[in-house]
Amino acid sequence: MQALYYVGPEQLELRETEEVPLAEGESRVRIQATGICGSDLHAFHGHDPRRQPPLILGHEAAGEVVEGALAGKRVTMNPLIVCGRCDYCLSGRQNLCSNRTMIGMTRAGSFAESLTIPDHCLIELPETLSPVAAALTEPAATALHGIQRLERSLSRPLAEARVLVIGAGAIGLLAGLMLRQRGVRTLRLADTNPLRRQTAQEAGLETFDPRDHIPPEASVEAVFDCVGAAATRDMAVAAVRPGGAIMHLGLQDNEGSLDVRAITLKEIAFLGAYTYTATDLRATVELLDSGALGDLSWVETRRLQEGAEAFADLVAGRTAAAKVVLLP
């Protein structure tokens, strides 16, 4: 089969490789669509010591089971492979599993014509959901998980809040679309890339360039930082009102210092959210299938053979797409 390998910092190679033998309790999935995640770009730059080359990256995927217990079924997948036995798994917080591994990190990922994955990671898809839309399940579930965590920290319904989303990449854009679907009336997205701002505007969301317009201090009840950089953390803390909440979803860097004095004096809830639970993923499949997030025309598709070029375009900011999906 063909697979796109990460072979070293900023180096990708399309290779012919043998399919991995099936282990007990696993299925083989023929990949029909697989998205490029920000964490894949992080690894591409050589900044993720957990992803060691040579490695097939990719963990946002949809396809058809061609071998295994669900043969013939259309599926998406939970890329987190959990033990099912630790306290976190038993309490429904599988994303925090003490023994978790992950496709595209500790084993071959989805930038290939097929992969193997444990059966418990597979989620059947409705016939009405296309493979490209289904490949958005993983990033959309990340946004959903963050929204639900923040929602529990507010004293008033989220729909009544003024909300700032920082970053108009896939998770930021999906968070914005979900917040609108939940009835949030005052919502703005900040991004420095004019192409991404245009994409978000075409999806019906209000945007601005934070280099030209700094949000007024203490102006919003909720902030979703979908970048996770020193500058965006500073912006979030300054913009949130006393008693508000910040959801930190991005992982761009761990630099700078956090204004804990302001967080304390303003009694801000500063929260993190890591990926999603199995329940989040299933709820996201239903949400995508409902069409509640729009026509998803902002997704760009390319062939797997064009994967290296797609990475280069994403790094250089040459594409307006908030998500590029590869088609093996």
UniProtKB/TrEMBL annotation:
Pfam families: ADH_N, ADH_zinc_N
Coiled-coil boundaries: none
Entries under InterPro entries matching the protein: ADH-like_C, ADH-like_N, ER, GroES-like_sf, NAD(P)-bd_dom_sf, Zn_alcohol_dh
Molecular function via GO: alcohol dehydrogenase (NAD+) activity; metal ion binding
EC identifiers of the protein: 1.1.1.1
Enoyl reductase (ER) domain ranges (all copies): 8-326
Keywords: Metal-binding, Oxidoreductase, Zinc
Keyword Oxidoreductase (UniProt): yes
Domain of life: Bacteria
Cited Gene3D superfamilies: Medium-chain alcohol dehydrogenases, catalytic domain (3.90.180.10), NAD(P)-binding Rossmann-like Domain (3.40.50.720)
Class in the EC hierarchy, top level: oxidoreductase
PANTHER family (UniProt xref): L-THREONINE 3-DEHYDROGENASE
Protein name, UniProt field: Alcohol dehydrogenase
Taxonomy of the source species: Bacteria, Pseudomonadati, Pseudomonadota, Gammaproteobacteria, Oceanospirillales
